[in-house]
Design goal:
Blueprint lengths: L1 E4 L12 H12 L8 E6 L3 E9 L8 E3 L3 E9 L1 E7 L6 E2 L11 E5 L4 E6 L2 E5 L4 E6 L6 E10 L4
Antiparallel strand pairs: 1-10, 2-3, 3-12, 4-8, 5-10, 5-12, 6-9, 6-11, 7-8
Length: 157
């Protein structure tokens, strides 16, 4: 997992793989205010962005998930939330749904040692397949969130 601000100064982003640099460039240069919620291709099915708007909720009402084929870059355009993150652990318990191929995700009903990552406008988190995450959780009070989630196929790295 990598947490940062999209508009920070410095050369740190140059150390990241080219596919992640391409996604961050897309996030920096795209005017999302002119786009509707939905899915937009950046590089076909290898890299695309999902724009979404929602209201934060209590963590117990949100399923935690992880992925197999894609890395997520979750970028907050407006609003704030907590993304709860956990890592693989022998006491984590999957839901009965199993791996959902079409959505590239596993859902969890029990997790060990979740941590809260506060997210606000301008911040992003890069979540790798082993990073179990529960986005959209309330931070201080309910918030309306606009978010861009870039999905990057792991074979681009």
């Amino acid at each position: 997992m990598i947490l940062s601000n999209l508009f920070q100064e410095g050369k740190e982003f140059e150390l990241l793989p080219k596919a992640i640099q391409k996604a961050l460039h897309y996030l920096r240069t795209t005017n999302f205010s002119e786009m509707k919620d939905g899915t937009y291709e950046i590089d076909g099915k290898k890299m695309f962005v999902i724009l979404q708007s929602y209201t934060t909720a209590n963590p117990e009402n949100i399923k935690a998930e992880s992925h197999k084929k894609y890395i997520d870059i979750q970028y907050i355009i407006e609003g704030n939330e907590i993304i709860r993150v956990a890592f693989p652990h022998k006491s984590n318990v999957f839901t009965d749904e199993g791996y959902q191929e079409e959505k590239d995700k596993w859902n969890y009903k029990e997790l060990a040692n979740e941590i809260d990552i506060p997210m606000y406008s301008g911040t992003f988190v890069i979540l790798f397949p082993t990073d179990i995450h529960r986005p959209g959780c309330i931070w201080h009070k309910i918030s309306n969130v606009r978010k861009a989630v870039v999905k990057i196929a792991i074979d681009l790295l």
